[in-house]
Every structure is written in structure tokens, then in C-alpha cells.
Amino acid sequence: MTKPHGVVVGYDGSDFAMQALDWAMDEAEPRRLPLTVAHAWEWPYGTAAPGAKEHLRKAAEHVLEHGAHRARASSSIGDVRAELREGPAADLLIELSGRADLVVVGSRGLGRVATTLLGSVAVQVARHAACPVVVVRGPGPLPVSGRRGPVVLALGEEPHDAELAFAFGEAELRQVPLLAVHAKTPPLMAWGPAMAPVPDVEATVQAGEQAMTERLAPWRSAHPGVRVETRFAACSPVEAVQAAAGTASLLVVGHGAARLGGVPKAALRHAPCPVAVVGAASITAAGERLNARA
């Protein structure tokens, strides 16, 4: 069901925000969803002089209108909205996520964290949003190339249906294959007291491939137009996912904890492609919607 805000994109006028806006338009347009361009501003210098905050607010309005105008002029999206708020950008995007289908953010912005490898806004939103979040990563402040690589799904030990639904939906929308990746470090096995333990690679691979086949079977049936490939690796999950992301058009990861760690954390910091995070709050919201329909 379409949410009132549709696709929400954080926009601050930076090159990274323009990447995010392009991605958000590509999500909203084919699905005929509304597009909400959101911008937040803060007075950063303590007590404001008379009229100073008003000047900053007007500048923020100009930035926001630029983003909304760009979306209206370069797409066929019929409903483009502008949302301006005073306060932290992450708070605004997290609030809007409660009534959104998707939130899109750039990997960095114009704020005080612009020189870091990953902006704090992107991390906070990915961690706490009530819907999936796409962090548009790429090779610097340049337009993201029109990659035709697969959607890569990082399968954890117990992936939630929300993660699979999002990954299959993106592959279907973009008409690209879905590559499901799962990895596990093999347990050590000793053949005798005099022999040092060695990894039981064969058993680990067989069990992993069988588990992937069973988990993906109903989703293959529900999405017959999506070509599905699987890859199980007997190594650390972070290593396997990073290797698969090299040719991906999108990397989908899930996390069911309050903190981003392991694969999601590594993906957000190092992946060479956009990263979609289906987080704990998003999974909870998906479960509540399913229970409400039951």
C-alpha cells in the first residue's frame, strides 16, 4: 500500500544530494509514487541576531525549492512535495519514514560531517527509519552511473521477509538479476589428537547452499520474471558481500539490532554501489502491517 509521503529524499543541494534525488526519482516514477523532497536547517552559532535566522530559513527554502523544481522538471512524477523543517536532518527523515515507502539519502552532505567517509545523517537514518533506506554511494561527487549489474542481497542467518521482498522488488523494477550471497566461516574439524584442526569447508558449503535454496524457493515462485543466482562462500560474510558488490547496481542488507554492525556497517562505509538497508524498525513495521492484515 502506498504511503502518503511515497519516496522521501533528503536534499541539501550538495552533489551527493543530487545523486540521491536522481535515485529517488528512479524509484518513484515507475511506481507512480509521490516524491517528497525534504530539507532541514539549523542555526549553528548559538543565539541568533535579529533577522539572522529568518535569512537562513529563506536560504533553506531556496535550496529546497531548487530540489523540488529539478524533480518536477526532469521527471513525469505527478506529485512532488517539499518538506522544510528547522532542526536536525536525521530527525526529519526518520519522522517522515513512518509514513513513507522508501527514504533515499546521499552518503555525505554539506554539513560539518561532509569530509567524513559517511555522513552521520545517513547512519542515523539507516539505523532508525521505519522503512527501507537507500544510501546512494558511488565514486565521489559525480552522477551515479547507470549500472546494469545485479541487485545483490546479503543473506544473513535468519533473513526477514521484508529484506527479501525489497530485494526482489528492486530486481524486478530494474529488470536485472538478483544475486543472493550468503557466507559462513567453516567450523574447525580434527581427524585425530595429533592433527591440528582444519576447516570443514565441504560440509559448510553443502549446508549453506541447501539453506539458501529452501529460503529463496517461495520468492522465486512469486517473482518468476527475476533471474536468481546464488553464491555461498566459506569465508567471513563481510568479505563475501564486499566481493559481490563490486559489480552490483544495488546492495541490499538487513539488520535486526539497534546498532549497525557487521555486514551493514561495512557496506555503508565501503561498498562501491548504493546500499539499501532494511533495518530493525523497518522490519518491525513490516511485521505490524502483516499482523494487521491477518
UniProtKB/TrEMBL annotation:
Give the Gene3D superfamilies listed for this entry.
HUPs (3.40.50.620)
List residues of the UspA domain.
7-137, 151-278
The record's InterPro entries line, in alphabetical order, gives: Rossmann-like_a/b/a_fold (IPR014729), Universal_stress_UspA (IPR006015), UspA (IPR006016)
Q: List the Pfam families.
A: Usp
Q: Which domain of life is it from?
A: Bacteria
Which ranges of the sequence are coiled-coil?
none
Question: Which PANTHER family is this protein grouped with?
Answer: ADENINE NUCLEOTIDE ALPHA HYDROLASES-LIKE SUPERFAMILY PROTEIN
Give the family per the record: Belongs to the universal stress protein A family.
Please give the name of this protein: UspA domain-containing protein
Which species is this UniProt entry from? Answer: Spongiactinospora gelatinilytica
